[in-house]
What does this fold into?
Amino acid sequence: AAKAQGKDGYAMFAPSMRDGFDREVMWRTELQQALADRTLHVAYQPIVALGERRVAGVEALARWQHPQHGIVAPDEFIPVAERAGLIAELGLLVLRRACAEFAAWPGSQSTYLSVNVSPSQMLDASFPSKVAATLYEVGLRPTQLVLEVTENALADESEVIGTLRRLREFGIRIAIDDFGTGYASLRYLHRFPADIVKIDRTYVQDIARDPAAVHILGTLWQLFGALGLTAVAEGIEDPAQAAMLVELGCEVGQGFLYGHPGPLNSITVELAPAERT
Ligand code: C2E
Ligand code: MG
Ligand code: MG
Ligand code: MG
It folds into this structure.
């Protein structure tokens, strides 16, 4: 089949090949097969304590190794899984696999594992006990796990908030992912039971050239501090961005500068000293 290489080297279907309904049905069937065959795997990206230059945690990112199309990006298959009602199964598979791999990794003693969770998974009342059972099975402490939810998950406020509270009672931390891109407003920040806020990379990418972005981030950091939230900057790609973030008081970040998503065993906890810029 014809295949186009998309951004980041992900495989994409050529637009002319299949569209709309056909494509959706095809993906759904293949995703079901992938779940059965276990051709989904997990890539890991380091989350770095910027000042100390050591890995504070790793984010688990789902990857689908498609037999014909190569690696399919999660931004493509997660929405399909959601529409097909497969996200609970997929999400649990990723969580279990990531927890097992992380528990077996020597670096897990001093770091945490961060796993993305879809809003619909949070609507399942038994989700917290499934997570707790997974941790128990692999021998991880709840404090070693962070669950990431996008701010749009907060649309369904009351139900999701109940689930988040229970997870936090276990000692699991909650991160608001891609902060600043959704339609949630600032008032969610203190209503939402969270521990960590991940600033979307669009803000980080602007700081080296846009003084307004610097002001926004500086102010946000103060606000997060006052609310007791730890901020994590996403999408740090060059040393200039990292230096500015540190100056603004940002202590934790991730991005291609520190490592692309890949096998867990390729991550070393202590980073080499920063190059002078
Ligand atoms: P996310 O959770 O915000 O993950 C960060 C995304 O940014 C990842 O894309 C990562 O590869 C990319 N990234 C990291 N550093 C940089 C950088 O410096 N520059 C740029 N341009 N990009 C960077 P990825 O792996 O394609 O994942 C996309 C999204 O798919 C994730 O965004 C997350 O929302 C979702 N996702 C991934 N795995 C899962 C999963 O297991 N379950 C759920 N529900 N969603 C997932
Ligand atoms: Mg994330
Ligand atoms: Mg994010
Ligand atoms: Mg994202």
